[in-house]
Amino acid sequence: MRLLWCIYIEERETRLCNLRIPNRPLAIIFAFFQLFVASSSLFQHIFSIYMHRHVFLCRSNITFDAPFEDQILAHDVIIFDFGLMRRVLGTQECVANYLDGGYMRFAWTIEHSSALSLSILALFCIPKPLWLYWPGLLMQSSYSLGLSVLTMAIAPKMLEAMGGRVDVELAIQMGVYIFGFTFNWIFTFILWHYYWHLERLYLPLSSTTTTTPRSVHLSNSHTKHTAVLV
Fold this sequence. Notes:
Structural class: mainly alpha
Number of domains: 1
Strand order of the largest sheet: 1-2-3-4
Number of helices: 7
Number of strands: 4
Order of helices and strands: EEEEHHHHHHH
Distance between the termini: 61 Å
């Protein structure tokens, strides 16, 4: 699978400008980074519940001299929003608060963190059974698709903002968001290709193992039948 002109993702390895990197260590590094993002987002909920008795008391319209309690809840880490949505959409809270108050985000961070932890465990020391990768593949694919839907929804406003006055703050906010979007899609592709590599590696062995008892049984039956005829 080719991305742009410099990235080529295969089942065993990824080539970056003719530099070959095995997919397994790449997937581990990417999974750890995304686990940090998901865990940080989960910590925001725990902090908000403990300090404010609210599932996600996110206020994006804060000043730089705001107290630490407000700063830590001012950004929607799971979607790499560090002020971009407030800048291009004019929102006063995080996007999750406008949906259901942050409850779905809370559940998602728990599920995503758990799935990534299981994937890291499988990547490190438990390559079989392959179904250990399924939760991570499902959550990561859904997450990347969700980021794509969000990006398409805010694309007109982002282009409008880029057509106006672009300062350093807006450039950093857009850069962080684009990095998170691109990073997660590349991670998803690498994880899927490595999973397909494991399928090719282990499924023929399991099919051979399952057909062996049947062939032995047929051989024994043929021997008994021959003995009776004699």
